From TrEMBL, chain B:
PANTHER family: ABC TRANSPORTER PERMEASE PROTEIN MJ0413-RELATED, ALKANE SULFONATE ABC TRANSPORTER-RELATED, MEMBRANE SUBUNIT. GO terms for biological process: transmembrane transport. One of its GO terms (cellular component) is plasma membrane. The chain crosses the membrane at residues 64-86, 98-117, 123-142, 175-199, 219-239. Pfam families: BPD_transp_1. This is ABC transporter permease. Its main location: membrane.
Length: 327, 258
């Protein structure tokens, strides 16, 4: 966020003039054609302040967007599902989304296109954790227990359910409760729940500060190498801005390649746009940053969702992705 | 405010902080993590040096003030109108009484759907929330005007407009000002809530979201503390303005120097 060039007038005695500029700020200027024939040169890109969208900041610092004639204004969103209205009404051009939310939204009739892959699970990136002295020793012990997930009926609950299945249980055997990641450790220790499904940097924090232990890595078996998040636009936006879209894809692709080849690039960026400090950034477990948007890989997400009833009908992922231009 | 009063207030705050520090350090179980007041204050001291945080405060304060100004510009004329024309007031009243208790925060998701410009969305919800206290106070202020004073002016041959500007408006002004002060608090709540729910490029709420995703509860609490300080400062500013401008009103109503 330090590179955010939007400098704002810090004025307590706001004048009416400021009121007018503040209220009337539309993006007419951003739609003028760019040097490369781009339909739009300034784009607002929404993301969560977590390690997944690091490619955006790598592309920003390395000048990959600039090379394409793009000016990217990053904005913080509160979740992939929450960002859908924002890409629909145009307050954001592009936003990150997790694939489970995306496919649920697509089934509900939302007109969304996936334009780039972002983050894929690796071992120990999403774990079920319990206090060190917990009587729960195996996933099977979760029967009748309460498990915290960050969102109900989303990737967390799906991931835990696939593990329950391996242990001979179903989702009905545990009680899922929604809780934000930062509150999970205290909630489990104060007896509100027995286990939590949690990701970084909270895995490391709960381990080192609360002594939690890993009960299971949920990104194994059916969920091994599970695609987690990507970049989305609305159908309408994709149709109106094909060149801008392709420019974004090229820049992000380069950044993803850098991220996956050099962890140092990620560690440099994390403290600039997340609240993760450099010393934490160097020890947390990170997932994979795929460069290519692969329908085959994403199809796995839709298929697993269908199997566990997260989708009622099969989705053909090919119909909702815009493949990047071949290089 | 007398010195003794100020001292007692400071003692209260210090006592609260010390109690909080002791409870968090020794009272609650070691299995629960929560930053102690000293840790939060430490972070709060350095926050103004963080350009991200400063930009956030700038955005939030700008939205807050613009929203409050727009709300005042809408609510005061409307309140004067409703106060001056009782039949209109009786027609509009049921609608106002229906809309007023709707928690303003609940309209944020709707605003996100409907309004595509981020600042506009945030300012709109602030305006919506801030209009009510100002409007209601203005209407009450208008109804509270001394009828004898109005009658005297009329009997001297002054027209309705003169009665309005010479008696009703000055008499209602202290009520309006109190409405604005109450609205300022509500407006800050909405300014930060809208950022928490909708995100954005920057803002105190956005900063809190970022801190939360990075497991920095200390930064979340420190930013929240600053939001409280801002609210306190603006309230004090408006209260001082109220006292200076309307000293006569306090004398007339015998309002205590609280």
């Amino acid at each position: 966020m330090t590179r955010k060039l939007r400098c704002r007038a810090i004025a307590i005695g706001v004048t009416v003039a400021l009121a007018l500029t503040g209220c009337g700020a539309s993006d007419d200027t951003a739609t003028s054609a760019g040097a490369n024939g781009l339909e739009k040169t300034t784009i607002k890109v929404g993301h969560l302040p977590i390690p997944d969208p690091v490619g955006l900041y790598i592309a920003q610092t390395k000048g990959f967007f600039k090379e394409e004639g793009l000016t990217v204004e990053p904005e913080i969103i509160t979740g992939g599902a929450a960002a859908i209205p924002q890409i629909e009404n145009g307050s954001l051009d592009i936003a990150m989304t997790n694939y489970v939310s995306t496919f649920v939204a697509v089934e509900q009739g939302k007109k969304i296109k996936l334009i780039a892959d972002m983050y894929q699970a690796a071992p120990n990136t999403f774990n079920i954790m319990v206090p060190k002295d917990s009587p729960i020793k195996t996933v099977a012990d979760l029967k009748g227990k309460t498990v915290l997930v960050n969102n109900l009926n989303n990737i967390g609950q799906l991931a835990v359910t696939t593990q329950l299945k391996v242990a001979g249980l179903t989702a009905e055997d545990v009680k899922f409760v929604e809780k934000p990641f930062p509150d999970m450790g205290n909630a489990v220790n104060s007896g509100q729940a027995d286990a939590c499904w949690i990701t970084e940097p909270f895995i490391t924090a709960n381990q080192s500060q609360l002594g939690f232990r890993k009960l299971a890595d949920t990104m194994t078996g059916q969920m091994a190498d599970f695609p987690i998040a990507g970049w989305m636009v609305s159908d309408e936006w994709a149709a109106k801005h094909p060149k801008t879209l392709a420019a974004f894809q090229r820049a992000i692709q380069k950044a993803q390649a850098l991220a996956s080849s050099d962890r140092k690039e990620i560690e440099t960026q994390l403290p600039t746009y997340t609240a993760i400090k450099a010393d934490v950034a160097s020890v947390i477990t990170l997932g994979v940053y795929p460069s290519e948007l692969s329908a085959n890989r994403l199809q796995k997400v839709a298929d697993v969702m269908l199997e566990y009833g997260y989708l009622k009908n099969a989705i053909d992922v090919n119909s909702i992705i815009v493949t990047p231009p071949s290089q | 405010m007398s010195k003794a009063r100020l001292l007692r207030g400071a003692l209260g705050v210090a006592g609260f902080l010390i109690l909080g520090e002791l409870v968090i350090r020794f009272g609650i179980s070691e299995d629960l993590l929560f930053p102690a007041p000293s840790a939060i204050l430490y972070e709060a001291v350095f926050q103004p040096a963080d350009p991200d945080f400063l930009a956030g405060v700038g955005t939030t304060v700008t939205n807050w003030m613009v929203g409050l100004l727009v709300a005042t510009a809408i609510a005061v004329p409307l309140g004067v109108l409703l106060g001056a024309l009782p039949p209109v007031e009786r027609v509009v009243r049921p609608l106002l009484e229906f809309l007023r208790p709707i928690p303003s925060v609940a309209i944020i998701p709707l605003a996100i759907l409907l309004i595509s410009v981020d600042e506009m969305m945030k300012i709109s919800v602030i305006v919506y929330a801030a209009v009510w206290p100002i409007l209601i106070n203005t209407v009450y202020g208008m109804q509270d005007v001394d009828p004898l004073a109005k009658e005297s002016l009329r009997s001297f041959g002054f027209g309705p407009l003169a009665v309005l500007t010479r008696v009703s408006l000055p008499s209602a002004a202290p009520f309006v000002m109190t409405g604005v002060r109450i609205a300022a608090g509500t407006a800050l709540v909405l300014a930060v809530s809208a950022e928490l729910m909708a995100g954005g490029a920057d803002g105190i709420g956005v900063y809190v979201n970022v801190a939360s995703s990075g497991n920095r509860v200390d930064l979340m609490m420190a930013a929240t503390l600053w939001a409280g300080v801002l609210g306190l400062l603006v309230n004090m500013l408006l209260l001082t303005g109220e006292r200076r401008l309307f000293r006569w009103h306090q004398v007339r109503t015998g309002a205590s120097e609280s």
